[in-house]
Amino acid sequence: MLLLGLDLGTSSIKASVVDGSTGKLVASAQYPDTENTISSPFDGWAEQDPEMWWTCVQEAIQRCNSSGKYNPKDIQAVGIAYQMHGLVIVDRNLSVLRPSIIWCDSRAVEIGKKAFDKIGHEKCLCNLLNSPGNFTASKLAWVKENEPKIYGSIYKIMLPGDFIAMKLTGDITTSNSALSEGIFWDFQTNSVSEDVMKCYGFPATILPEIRPLFSNHGEVKSSIADALGLKAGIPVTYKSGDQPNNALSLNVLDPGEVAATAGTSGVIYSVSDKVSYDPKSRVNTFAHVNHELNGLNRLGTLLCINGTGILNRWVRDNVASGLSYQEMNALASKVNEGADGLRILPFGNGAERVLENKVIGATFQRLNLNAHANAHIIRAAQEGIAYSLKYGMDIMAENGTSPSVIRAGKANMFLSDIFSQTLVNVTGVAVELYDTDGAKGAALGSGIGVKYFANPKDAFVNMEKIGVVEPETEKASTYQDIYQDWKNILDNQLAND
After folding, report:
1. Is the pTM of this model over 0.85?
2. Whole-angstrom Cα distance, residue 282 to residue 270?
3. pLDDT block averages, 10 residues each, the chain of length 497
4. Whole-number Å distance between alpha carbons of 261 and 303
5. φ, ψ for residue 364 (rounded to 5)?
6. Using CB atoms within 10 A as the burial measure, which of 248, 359, 432, 479 is most buried?
7. Is the dihedral of CA 81, 208, 268, 190 positive or negative?
Protein backbone atom coordinates (compact mmCIF):
# COMPACT_ATOMS: atom_id res chain seq x y z
CA MET A 1 0.00 0.00 0.00
CA LEU A 2 1.97 3.00 -1.24
CA LEU A 3 0.94 6.41 0.09
CA LEU A 4 2.15 9.82 -1.14
CA GLY A 5 2.64 12.65 1.33
CA LEU A 6 3.27 16.29 0.39
CA ASP A 7 4.59 18.84 2.88
CA LEU A 8 4.09 22.40 1.66
CA GLY A 9 6.61 24.35 3.72
CA THR A 10 7.63 27.96 3.58
CA SER A 11 11.16 27.18 2.39
CA SER A 12 10.54 24.14 0.19
CA ILE A 13 8.12 21.35 -0.67
CA LYS A 14 8.86 17.75 0.26
CA ALA A 15 7.28 14.64 -1.24
CA SER A 16 7.53 11.23 0.42
CA VAL A 17 6.25 7.80 -0.52
CA VAL A 18 5.55 5.49 2.41
CA ASP A 19 4.69 1.80 2.51
CA GLY A 20 1.54 1.74 4.62
CA SER A 21 1.98 -1.91 5.56
CA THR A 22 5.29 -1.25 7.33
CA GLY A 23 5.22 2.51 7.94
CA LYS A 24 8.62 2.68 6.27
CA LEU A 25 9.79 5.48 4.01
CA VAL A 26 10.29 4.23 0.45
CA ALA A 27 11.56 7.44 -1.14
CA SER A 28 11.54 11.19 -0.60
CA ALA A 29 12.64 14.33 -2.38
CA GLN A 30 12.28 18.05 -1.96
CA TYR A 31 12.30 21.07 -4.21
CA PRO A 32 13.92 23.55 -4.60
CA ASP A 33 17.50 22.77 -3.55
CA THR A 34 17.82 26.27 -2.17
CA GLU A 35 15.01 27.94 -0.22
CA ASN A 36 11.90 29.63 -1.59
CA THR A 37 11.84 33.35 -1.03
CA ILE A 38 9.27 35.33 0.92
CA SER A 39 8.28 38.56 -0.81
CA SER A 40 7.96 41.57 1.49
CA PRO A 41 7.15 44.61 -0.66
CA PHE A 42 6.17 46.60 2.44
CA ASP A 43 7.16 46.41 6.09
CA GLY A 44 5.33 43.58 7.82
CA TRP A 45 4.19 41.92 4.59
CA ALA A 46 4.96 38.30 3.71
CA GLU A 47 3.74 36.77 0.47
CA GLN A 48 4.41 33.79 -1.78
CA ASP A 49 3.05 32.84 -5.19
CA PRO A 50 0.75 29.78 -4.95
CA GLU A 51 1.70 28.79 -8.50
CA MET A 52 5.31 28.61 -7.30
CA TRP A 53 4.16 26.10 -4.69
CA TRP A 54 2.45 24.05 -7.39
CA THR A 55 5.60 24.04 -9.53
CA CYS A 56 7.61 22.86 -6.51
CA VAL A 57 5.05 20.14 -5.72
CA GLN A 58 5.28 18.75 -9.25
CA GLU A 59 9.09 18.85 -9.22
CA ALA A 60 9.27 17.15 -5.82
CA ILE A 61 6.90 14.35 -6.93
CA GLN A 62 8.85 13.79 -10.14
CA ARG A 63 12.15 13.72 -8.24
CA CYS A 64 10.66 11.16 -5.87
CA ASN A 65 9.44 9.06 -8.79
CA SER A 66 12.85 9.22 -10.47
CA SER A 67 14.39 7.32 -7.54
CA GLY A 68 13.21 4.12 -9.21
CA LYS A 69 12.35 2.60 -5.83
CA TYR A 70 8.66 2.12 -6.58
CA ASN A 71 6.13 2.19 -9.38
CA PRO A 72 4.26 5.54 -9.19
CA LYS A 73 1.16 3.79 -10.53
CA ASP A 74 1.00 1.83 -7.26
CA ILE A 75 0.34 4.92 -5.15
CA GLN A 76 -3.17 4.60 -3.71
CA ALA A 77 -3.80 7.89 -1.85
CA VAL A 78 -2.38 11.38 -1.35
CA GLY A 79 -2.07 13.42 1.86
CA ILE A 80 -1.14 17.09 2.14
CA ALA A 81 0.41 19.06 5.00
CA TYR A 82 0.79 22.80 4.56
CA GLN A 83 1.95 26.06 6.10
CA MET A 84 -0.93 27.30 8.24
CA HIS A 85 -2.99 30.50 8.20
CA GLY A 86 -2.25 31.51 4.59
CA LEU A 87 -4.84 33.02 2.27
CA VAL A 88 -5.22 31.89 -1.34
CA ILE A 89 -7.97 33.40 -3.51
CA VAL A 90 -9.14 32.29 -6.96
CA ASP A 91 -11.71 33.40 -9.50
CA ARG A 92 -14.31 31.21 -11.25
CA ASN A 93 -11.65 29.99 -13.67
CA LEU A 94 -9.68 28.79 -10.63
CA SER A 95 -6.97 31.32 -11.46
CA VAL A 96 -5.03 32.86 -8.57
CA LEU A 97 -5.97 36.52 -8.12
CA ARG A 98 -3.03 37.71 -6.02
CA PRO A 99 -0.02 36.30 -4.13
CA SER A 100 -0.85 34.36 -0.99
CA ILE A 101 -0.70 36.37 2.23
CA ILE A 102 1.15 33.80 4.35
CA TRP A 103 1.30 32.92 8.03
CA CYS A 104 3.93 35.44 9.17
CA ASP A 105 2.35 38.45 7.46
CA SER A 106 1.43 41.23 9.92
CA ARG A 107 -0.68 43.61 7.84
CA ALA A 108 -4.04 42.47 9.26
CA VAL A 109 -3.18 42.85 12.96
CA GLU A 110 -5.17 46.08 13.42
CA ILE A 111 -8.12 44.69 11.46
CA GLY A 112 -8.16 41.69 13.78
CA LYS A 113 -8.05 43.93 16.85
CA LYS A 114 -11.07 45.88 15.64
CA ALA A 115 -13.00 42.66 15.02
CA PHE A 116 -12.02 41.42 18.50
CA ASP A 117 -13.60 44.57 19.97
CA LYS A 118 -16.63 44.52 17.67
CA ILE A 119 -17.56 40.88 18.20
CA GLY A 120 -16.61 41.08 21.87
CA HIS A 121 -13.57 39.66 23.64
CA GLU A 122 -15.47 37.10 25.70
CA LYS A 123 -17.51 35.85 22.75
CA CYS A 124 -14.43 35.54 20.51
CA LEU A 125 -12.52 33.60 23.12
CA CYS A 126 -15.45 31.37 24.11
CA ASN A 127 -16.63 30.64 20.57
CA LEU A 128 -13.54 31.00 18.38
CA LEU A 129 -11.05 30.09 21.14
CA ASN A 130 -8.87 32.93 19.81
CA SER A 131 -8.94 36.57 18.90
CA PRO A 132 -9.24 37.10 15.11
CA GLY A 133 -5.64 38.40 15.16
CA ASN A 134 -3.86 38.34 11.83
CA PHE A 135 -5.24 34.93 10.88
CA THR A 136 -6.77 34.04 7.53
CA ALA A 137 -10.16 35.70 8.06
CA SER A 138 -8.52 39.01 8.95
CA LYS A 139 -6.22 38.75 5.92
CA LEU A 140 -9.29 38.34 3.71
CA ALA A 141 -10.80 41.41 5.37
CA TRP A 142 -7.60 43.31 4.48
CA VAL A 143 -8.08 42.36 0.82
CA LYS A 144 -11.70 43.48 1.00
CA GLU A 145 -10.72 46.87 2.45
CA ASN A 146 -7.63 47.55 0.36
CA GLU A 147 -8.11 45.67 -2.91
CA PRO A 148 -11.86 45.84 -3.56
CA LYS A 149 -11.57 45.01 -7.26
CA ILE A 150 -9.68 41.80 -6.48
CA TYR A 151 -12.08 40.99 -3.66
CA GLY A 152 -15.05 41.41 -6.02
CA SER A 153 -13.56 38.79 -8.35
CA ILE A 154 -13.16 36.11 -5.68
CA TYR A 155 -14.93 32.81 -6.29
CA LYS A 156 -13.42 30.85 -3.39
CA ILE A 157 -10.82 31.36 -0.70
CA MET A 158 -8.53 28.55 0.40
CA LEU A 159 -5.75 27.67 2.76
CA PRO A 160 -2.50 26.62 1.05
CA GLY A 161 -3.19 22.88 1.27
CA ASP A 162 -6.67 23.35 -0.18
CA PHE A 163 -5.05 25.05 -3.16
CA ILE A 164 -2.63 22.18 -3.85
CA ALA A 165 -5.50 19.69 -3.58
CA MET A 166 -7.46 21.84 -6.05
CA LYS A 167 -4.56 21.75 -8.52
CA LEU A 168 -4.44 17.96 -8.25
CA THR A 169 -8.18 17.28 -8.39
CA GLY A 170 -10.06 20.35 -9.59
CA ASP A 171 -12.19 20.22 -6.41
CA ILE A 172 -12.20 22.91 -3.71
CA THR A 173 -12.83 21.56 -0.23
CA THR A 174 -11.83 22.26 3.35
CA SER A 175 -12.43 20.89 6.88
CA ASN A 176 -13.46 22.18 10.29
CA SER A 177 -9.83 21.94 11.42
CA ALA A 178 -8.73 24.14 8.53
CA LEU A 179 -11.52 26.65 9.13
CA SER A 180 -10.62 26.79 12.82
CA GLU A 181 -7.02 27.76 12.00
CA GLY A 182 -8.36 30.52 9.77
CA ILE A 183 -10.65 31.70 12.62
CA PHE A 184 -13.82 30.90 10.70
CA TRP A 185 -15.08 28.15 13.06
CA ASP A 186 -17.44 28.49 16.02
CA PHE A 187 -16.76 25.74 18.56
CA GLN A 188 -20.00 26.40 20.45
CA THR A 189 -22.33 26.07 17.44
CA ASN A 190 -20.01 23.59 15.68
CA SER A 191 -20.37 25.50 12.43
CA VAL A 192 -18.94 28.39 10.46
CA SER A 193 -18.90 31.47 12.70
CA GLU A 194 -21.81 33.78 11.90
CA ASP A 195 -20.14 36.45 14.02
CA VAL A 196 -16.95 36.47 11.94
CA MET A 197 -18.77 36.31 8.61
CA LYS A 198 -21.13 39.14 9.62
CA CYS A 199 -18.41 41.29 11.18
CA TYR A 200 -16.28 41.16 8.05
CA GLY A 201 -19.18 41.08 5.59
CA PHE A 202 -18.20 37.83 3.90
CA PRO A 203 -20.80 35.80 1.97
CA ALA A 204 -21.05 32.14 2.97
CA THR A 205 -20.42 31.11 -0.65
CA ILE A 206 -16.84 32.36 -0.49
CA LEU A 207 -15.82 29.36 1.63
CA PRO A 208 -15.09 25.90 0.18
CA GLU A 209 -17.27 22.86 0.74
CA ILE A 210 -16.60 21.39 4.20
CA ARG A 211 -15.68 17.70 4.38
CA PRO A 212 -14.25 15.55 7.20
CA LEU A 213 -10.49 15.95 7.43
CA PHE A 214 -9.89 12.20 6.87
CA SER A 215 -12.06 11.75 3.78
CA ASN A 216 -12.11 12.03 0.00
CA HIS A 217 -11.22 15.61 -1.01
CA GLY A 218 -11.21 14.87 -4.73
CA GLU A 219 -9.49 12.53 -7.14
CA VAL A 220 -6.37 13.24 -9.20
CA LYS A 221 -7.33 14.40 -12.70
CA SER A 222 -6.19 12.40 -15.71
CA SER A 223 -4.16 15.27 -17.13
CA ILE A 224 -2.30 15.76 -13.84
CA ALA A 225 -1.83 12.04 -13.31
CA ASP A 226 -0.33 11.67 -16.79
CA ALA A 227 2.07 14.56 -16.20
CA LEU A 228 3.22 13.18 -12.84
CA GLY A 229 3.27 9.49 -13.69
CA LEU A 230 0.47 8.69 -11.25
CA LYS A 231 -2.68 6.64 -11.67
CA ALA A 232 -5.70 8.76 -12.52
CA GLY A 233 -8.44 8.82 -9.92
CA ILE A 234 -6.37 8.25 -6.78
CA PRO A 235 -7.97 10.25 -3.96
CA VAL A 236 -6.62 13.07 -1.83
CA THR A 237 -7.81 11.79 1.54
CA TYR A 238 -6.07 14.03 4.07
CA LYS A 239 -5.25 17.73 4.40
CA SER A 240 -3.88 19.34 7.53
CA GLY A 241 -1.95 22.37 8.67
CA ASP A 242 1.71 21.61 9.26
CA GLN A 243 1.58 21.75 13.06
CA PRO A 244 -1.41 19.44 13.62
CA ASN A 245 0.17 17.21 10.97
CA ASN A 246 3.51 17.25 12.78
CA ALA A 247 1.66 16.13 15.91
CA LEU A 248 -0.03 13.36 13.90
CA SER A 249 3.34 12.25 12.50
CA LEU A 250 4.57 11.87 16.11
CA ASN A 251 1.43 9.96 17.22
CA VAL A 252 0.40 12.91 19.39
CA LEU A 253 -3.35 12.39 19.39
CA ASP A 254 -4.53 12.12 22.99
CA PRO A 255 -4.88 14.59 25.87
CA GLY A 256 -1.58 15.45 27.55
CA GLU A 257 0.60 14.49 24.59
CA VAL A 258 2.92 17.21 23.26
CA ALA A 259 4.79 17.66 19.97
CA ALA A 260 7.40 20.16 18.85
CA THR A 261 8.85 21.33 15.58
CA ALA A 262 11.45 23.94 14.73
CA GLY A 263 11.51 24.80 11.05
CA THR A 264 11.07 28.35 9.75
CA SER A 265 8.91 28.87 12.84
CA GLY A 266 9.10 26.98 16.12
CA VAL A 267 6.05 25.34 17.68
CA ILE A 268 5.05 23.51 20.84
CA TYR A 269 1.71 21.76 20.28
CA SER A 270 -0.34 20.18 23.07
CA VAL A 271 -3.48 18.07 22.71
CA SER A 272 -6.44 18.47 25.08
CA ASP A 273 -10.00 17.20 25.32
CA LYS A 274 -11.19 20.49 26.81
CA VAL A 275 -12.43 23.51 24.86
CA SER A 276 -10.20 26.18 26.40
CA TYR A 277 -8.30 29.32 25.46
CA ASP A 278 -5.64 31.74 26.63
CA PRO A 279 -7.34 34.98 27.80
CA LYS A 280 -4.72 37.06 25.94
CA SER A 281 -4.68 34.78 22.87
CA ARG A 282 -0.90 34.44 23.17
CA VAL A 283 -1.19 30.74 22.45
CA ASN A 284 -3.94 29.52 20.17
CA THR A 285 -6.36 26.63 20.11
CA PHE A 286 -7.58 24.89 16.96
CA ALA A 287 -9.37 21.66 16.07
CA HIS A 288 -6.84 18.82 16.00
CA VAL A 289 -6.79 16.34 13.12
CA ASN A 290 -8.89 13.83 15.08
CA HIS A 291 -11.33 16.34 16.55
CA GLU A 292 -14.82 14.80 16.49
CA LEU A 293 -13.49 11.54 15.02
CA ASN A 294 -15.64 8.93 16.78
CA GLY A 295 -17.24 11.78 18.74
CA LEU A 296 -14.04 12.77 20.57
CA ASN A 297 -13.09 16.29 21.57
CA ARG A 298 -9.48 16.83 20.47
CA LEU A 299 -8.14 20.38 20.50
CA GLY A 300 -4.58 21.44 19.77
CA THR A 301 -3.08 24.33 21.74
CA LEU A 302 -0.34 25.89 19.65
CA LEU A 303 2.56 28.04 20.80
CA CYS A 304 4.29 29.57 17.77
CA ILE A 305 7.53 31.54 17.60
CA ASN A 306 7.80 33.00 14.09
CA GLY A 307 11.53 33.72 14.25
CA THR A 308 13.07 30.27 14.62
CA GLY A 309 14.77 28.53 11.68
CA ILE A 310 14.48 31.77 9.72
CA LEU A 311 16.87 33.39 12.25
CA ASN A 312 19.25 30.45 11.96
CA ARG A 313 19.12 30.82 8.17
CA TRP A 314 19.75 34.57 8.44
CA VAL A 315 22.83 33.86 10.55
CA ARG A 316 24.03 31.32 7.99
CA ASP A 317 23.53 33.71 5.09
CA ASN A 318 24.89 36.86 6.73
CA VAL A 319 27.31 35.80 9.49
CA ALA A 320 28.51 32.24 8.97
CA SER A 321 30.58 32.90 5.82
CA GLY A 322 29.07 30.14 3.72
CA LEU A 323 29.21 27.40 6.35
CA SER A 324 26.69 24.57 6.28
CA TYR A 325 24.29 24.17 9.19
CA GLN A 326 26.34 21.21 10.41
CA GLU A 327 29.54 23.28 10.31
CA MET A 328 27.77 26.12 12.12
CA ASN A 329 26.73 23.77 14.91
CA ALA A 330 30.28 22.44 15.26
CA LEU A 331 31.69 25.97 15.46
CA ALA A 332 29.13 27.12 18.01
CA SER A 333 29.83 24.10 20.21
CA LYS A 334 33.26 25.59 20.98
CA VAL A 335 31.60 28.52 22.76
CA ASN A 336 30.48 28.38 26.39
CA GLU A 337 26.83 28.20 27.43
CA GLY A 338 25.43 31.71 27.36
CA ALA A 339 27.70 32.76 24.45
CA ASP A 340 29.90 34.80 26.80
CA GLY A 341 27.10 37.26 27.55
CA LEU A 342 25.72 37.77 24.02
CA ARG A 343 21.92 37.60 23.91
CA ILE A 344 19.66 37.49 20.87
CA LEU A 345 15.88 37.98 20.79
CA PRO A 346 14.64 36.08 17.70
CA PHE A 347 11.46 38.06 17.02
CA GLY A 348 12.29 39.38 13.55
CA ASN A 349 9.67 37.61 11.45
CA GLY A 350 6.48 39.61 11.84
CA ALA A 351 3.93 39.95 14.61
CA GLU A 352 4.49 37.44 17.39
CA ARG A 353 1.30 36.07 18.93
CA VAL A 354 3.19 35.12 22.09
CA LEU A 355 3.96 38.86 22.49
CA GLU A 356 0.28 39.79 21.94
CA ASN A 357 0.88 40.45 18.23
CA LYS A 358 3.63 43.01 18.78
CA VAL A 359 6.31 43.47 16.12
CA ILE A 360 9.53 44.16 18.03
CA GLY A 361 12.16 42.87 15.61
CA ALA A 362 15.17 40.68 16.32
CA THR A 363 17.61 42.20 18.80
CA PHE A 364 21.29 41.65 19.59
CA GLN A 365 22.24 42.65 23.14
CA ARG A 366 25.74 43.06 24.60
CA LEU A 367 27.58 42.41 21.37
CA ASN A 368 31.26 42.97 22.25
CA LEU A 369 33.28 43.73 19.13
CA ASN A 370 36.47 42.71 20.90
CA ALA A 371 35.22 39.43 22.35
CA HIS A 372 32.47 38.01 20.14
CA ALA A 373 32.92 36.27 16.80
CA ASN A 374 30.62 34.41 14.45
CA ALA A 375 30.63 31.33 16.71
CA HIS A 376 29.13 33.41 19.52
CA ILE A 377 26.41 34.78 17.24
CA ILE A 378 25.51 31.28 16.02
CA ARG A 379 25.26 29.98 19.57
CA ALA A 380 23.41 33.02 20.92
CA ALA A 381 20.87 32.75 18.08
CA GLN A 382 20.13 29.09 18.79
CA GLU A 383 19.96 29.72 22.53
CA GLY A 384 17.65 32.70 21.96
CA ILE A 385 15.29 30.52 19.94
CA ALA A 386 15.23 27.94 22.74
CA TYR A 387 14.58 30.65 25.35
CA SER A 388 11.71 32.06 23.31
CA LEU A 389 10.08 28.62 23.33
CA LYS A 390 10.65 28.41 27.10
CA TYR A 391 8.96 31.83 27.41
CA GLY A 392 5.95 30.50 25.51
CA MET A 393 5.85 27.24 27.43
CA ASP A 394 5.51 29.23 30.65
CA ILE A 395 2.40 30.83 29.13
CA MET A 396 1.11 27.37 28.20
CA ALA A 397 1.68 26.33 31.82
CA GLU A 398 -0.58 29.20 32.93
CA ASN A 399 -3.26 27.55 30.81
CA GLY A 400 -2.75 24.06 32.20
CA THR A 401 -0.11 22.52 29.89
CA SER A 402 2.96 21.21 31.70
CA PRO A 403 4.45 18.36 29.64
CA SER A 404 6.62 15.63 31.13
CA VAL A 405 8.06 14.82 27.71
CA ILE A 406 7.99 16.38 24.24
CA ARG A 407 8.13 14.43 20.97
CA ALA A 408 9.90 15.85 17.92
CA GLY A 409 11.16 14.69 14.57
CA LYS A 410 14.94 14.74 14.25
CA ALA A 411 14.92 17.45 11.61
CA ASN A 412 15.53 21.18 11.15
CA MET A 413 16.67 22.84 14.40
CA PHE A 414 16.47 19.52 16.26
CA LEU A 415 19.50 18.43 14.23
CA SER A 416 21.47 20.85 16.39
CA ASP A 417 22.67 19.46 19.74
CA ILE A 418 23.10 23.03 21.01
CA PHE A 419 19.50 24.00 20.34
CA SER A 420 18.04 20.68 21.55
CA GLN A 421 20.09 20.55 24.76
CA THR A 422 19.44 24.22 25.55
CA LEU A 423 15.69 23.72 25.18
CA VAL A 424 15.74 20.63 27.38
CA ASN A 425 18.01 22.17 30.02
CA VAL A 426 16.07 25.41 30.35
CA THR A 427 12.63 23.74 30.46
CA GLY A 428 13.63 20.61 32.38
CA VAL A 429 11.55 18.56 29.92
CA ALA A 430 13.07 15.67 27.96
CA VAL A 431 12.69 15.55 24.18
CA GLU A 432 12.14 12.24 22.42
CA LEU A 433 13.39 12.26 18.82
CA TYR A 434 11.75 10.21 16.08
CA ASP A 435 12.59 9.38 12.49
CA THR A 436 9.68 11.18 10.93
CA ASP A 437 8.70 14.45 9.28
CA GLY A 438 5.71 16.27 7.84
CA ALA A 439 5.68 14.54 4.46
CA LYS A 440 5.78 11.09 6.05
CA GLY A 441 3.02 12.12 8.42
CA ALA A 442 0.89 13.38 5.52
CA ALA A 443 1.39 10.08 3.68
CA LEU A 444 0.22 8.07 6.70
CA GLY A 445 -2.63 10.53 7.13
CA SER A 446 -3.82 9.66 3.64
CA GLY A 447 -3.81 6.00 4.70
CA ILE A 448 -6.15 6.88 7.55
CA GLY A 449 -8.35 8.86 5.17
CA VAL A 450 -8.59 6.03 2.65
CA LYS A 451 -9.42 3.68 5.57
CA TYR A 452 -6.37 1.49 5.09
CA PHE A 453 -5.84 1.99 8.83
CA ALA A 454 -8.77 1.31 11.13
CA ASN A 455 -7.87 4.32 13.30
CA PRO A 456 -5.08 6.93 13.54
CA LYS A 457 -3.14 5.02 16.21
CA ASP A 458 -2.79 2.01 13.87
CA ALA A 459 -0.86 4.15 11.39
CA PHE A 460 2.00 4.62 13.86
CA VAL A 461 2.54 1.17 15.40
CA ASN A 462 5.95 1.02 13.66
CA MET A 463 7.11 4.51 14.67
CA GLU A 464 10.80 4.44 15.70
CA LYS A 465 12.30 6.44 18.52
CA ILE A 466 15.90 7.25 17.61
CA GLY A 467 17.04 9.12 20.69
CA VAL A 468 16.18 11.06 23.84
CA VAL A 469 17.67 14.36 24.99
CA GLU A 470 17.63 14.41 28.79
CA PRO A 471 18.05 17.45 31.06
CA GLU A 472 21.55 17.93 32.44
CA THR A 473 20.52 18.50 36.03
CA GLU A 474 23.94 19.77 37.08
CA LYS A 475 23.55 22.65 34.62
CA ALA A 476 19.96 23.56 35.49
CA SER A 477 20.81 26.62 37.58
CA THR A 478 23.25 27.89 34.95
CA TYR A 479 20.61 27.78 32.23
CA GLN A 480 17.97 29.30 34.49
CA ASP A 481 20.28 32.24 35.21
CA ILE A 482 21.01 32.77 31.51
CA TYR A 483 17.31 32.50 30.67
CA GLN A 484 16.34 35.01 33.36
CA ASP A 485 18.90 37.44 31.96
CA TRP A 486 17.48 36.90 28.45
CA LYS A 487 13.92 37.36 29.74
CA ASN A 488 14.84 40.59 31.54
CA ILE A 489 16.07 41.99 28.23
CA LEU A 490 12.80 40.97 26.55
CA ASP A 491 10.68 42.41 29.37
CA ASN A 492 12.53 45.73 29.17
CA GLN A 493 12.06 45.92 25.42
CA LEU A 494 8.35 45.14 25.71
CA ALA A 495 7.95 47.77 28.41
CA ASN A 496 9.56 50.39 26.19
CA ASP A 497 7.90 49.33 22.95
Report:
1. yes
2. 14
3. 97 97 96 94 96 98 98 98 98 98 96 98 96 97 98 98 98 97 96 98 98 97 98 98 96 96 95 92 96 90 96 96 94 97 97 94 97 98 98 94 94 96 98 95 98 94 94 96 98 93
4. 11
5. -100, 130
6. 248
7. negative
